[in-house]
Each structure stands twice: as structure tokens, then as C-alpha cells.
Amino acid sequence: MKSIPPLEHQQFIETVGLSFELVGLPRMAGRILGWLLISNPPHQSPSELADVLQASKGSISTMTRLLMQLGLIERTSLPGQRRDYFRLKPNAWAELTTQRITQIKTFRELAEQGLKLIDSQTPELRQRLEEMHDIHAFFEQELPLMMERWEQRQSNGLKVTTVNERVRLN
């Protein structure tokens, strides 16, 4: 049985959970991810997750399946042990972005279909679909280029600094 994490860790876990809710995902999935982001060791069994998060094993099972489907975590095992563990999937964030590029392409294609349906309509009626098309076409073009730059930075061992970090360093 694990001890309850320190208050700062609990607050982080809850903030990740709330952030998941803001984008339409279950809070518990976010809480699991939040713990896997900061847990030591980085792999956690379903029982450990249930203990730390004070959640039912059924909820942990359902939400870990969701997180695996999203490509954020993976099931793993340790040599000589029969139980399964979960951990953050390597390159999870890059894979998630690649999935988003596919979603963006789908929305651009939907906008194109809609525009064909109302081809002869007035510009006012077309505006909604044109906006949908244009923003998704833009991101469909730009995100792969950003991913290439990200991969180059990673392979060169370069770290990204935020605006706040740059201000602190100066």
C-alpha cells in the first residue's frame, strides 16, 4: 500500500485531471496521467494507481484503457513479475500531435465537402465553412513542418525554452 503523495503532488494530479476535463476527457484519466508524469518509479501497477489516487480498480481499468487508446500510456511488465504496470509511453506527445494532424486533415476535408454542397450560395453562407477550411488547411500545412523542426531539435539534444524561462535567464 502506497502512502498518499505530498500535497503539492496531489495538487498537480488534480490540475492535470481538471485540464483533461476542459478538453472533454474524463478527469480520472487526467489524474492517472498526472501521477504517471511525476511518479517514482515511473511505472505503476493498477493497484498502486488505485491506492495513490483513491479510486476504484474498475475506474483505473477503464481509464488506463482510454489512455492507451489515446497513445499516452502503455502497459508493461518487469522481469520476474507477473503483474502488469502502466507508464507514460515514450514519444507520447509527438504521437498525439501526429494524431491531431490527421484530425485536422479530416476537418479540412469535411469543410471542402460542405463547400461543394453550397457551391452556388452567397458568400455569407459560405463564410463559416471557408473559415473552417482555411484554418485547418493552414494547420495541416504548418504542423508537420513544426514536427520536423521538433525532431531535429531532439536529435541535436537542444532544449526548448519558454518566454518566461528566457526572461529569468536574462
UniProtKB/TrEMBL annotation:
* A single MF term (Gene Ontology): DNA binding
Residue span, HTH marR-type domain: 24-83
The organism's lineage? Bacteria, Bacillati, Cyanobacteriota, Cyanophyceae, Leptolyngbyales
Record organism:
Stenomitos frigidus ULC18
Q: What is this protein called?
A: MarR family transcriptional regulator
What residue ranges carry the coiled-coil annotation? Answer: none
Q: Name one Pfam family in it.
A: MarR_2
Q: Do the record's keywords include Cell membrane?
A: no
Which keywords does the record carry? DNA-binding, Transcription, Transcription regulation
Going by the entry's taxonomy, the superkingdom of the source organism is recorded as Bacteria
Q: What InterPro entries does the record tag this protein with?
A: HTH-GbsR_regulator, HTH_MarR-typ, WH-like_DNA-bd_sf, WH_DNA-bd_sf
Q: Is DNA-binding given among the entry's keywords?
A: yes
